[in-house]
């Protein structure tokens, strides 16, 4: 088995191995090639900090990573790790993770972050043996798209900009109960900004709430309302506006911090069901 970073491995080769790796995953992964490319871009994929396992020049396993500054620390994020079924239980994942951590040390990266499905006990145990700790539990929700016609509100106005300004982003952060996960972060939204639709609720030109949804796959990546305007129907109106901004028959909100009681309760009341729970894990390097 040969291990090397992935600068010379094209994206379609990664995709072919990706489909084999996740063919028997706990959650069905049905991702077209274009969506795979978008996911790499969204999460800041960097081939020079990603590692592949090659058997006679065939890519049989990988650790795909991105790098960003996260909470003031240069951080590497695991976009996806796996080995195709025929090559599992040979210590390949452990070896790839060891190589990644050596690369991190050479590049001055201070933290390694990833997510693992809670029920995937084998993966969770492996990461714990590698020194990762559970930071928080993340809930993932799905619902049927249900575009509703709502009465016009006098208290606020719904705006549909092309993107959020830097000033609006700063204000939006003050609405959060908990910070978004990596793939729902501001940097991830900005990386593929044109693929999202944005809904803002304003009162006299002042932002009081907002939501962001992927126009094609229905992923709602952020939804928040200013504290003093909660329980007045703002979030509900934003939500149904978001439903009308995607062509997907289903809408999802993934990686919602379990500690965010109000958002979890709101999603359940809005007809969403939880379909999986994940751990956010990290290791200080």
From TrEMBL:
InterPro entries: Acyl_CoA_acyltransferase, GNAT_dom, YpeA/RimI_acetyltransf. Pfam families: Acetyltransf_1, Acetyltransf_10. This is GNAT family N-acetyltransferase. Residues 1-157, 159-285 form the N-acetyltransferase domain. PANTHER family: ACETYLTRANSFERASE, ACETYLTRANSFERASE YPEA. Keywords: Acyltransferase, Transferase. It comes from Amedibacillus hominis. Gene3D superfamilies: 3.40.630.30. PROSITE patterns: GNAT (PS51186).
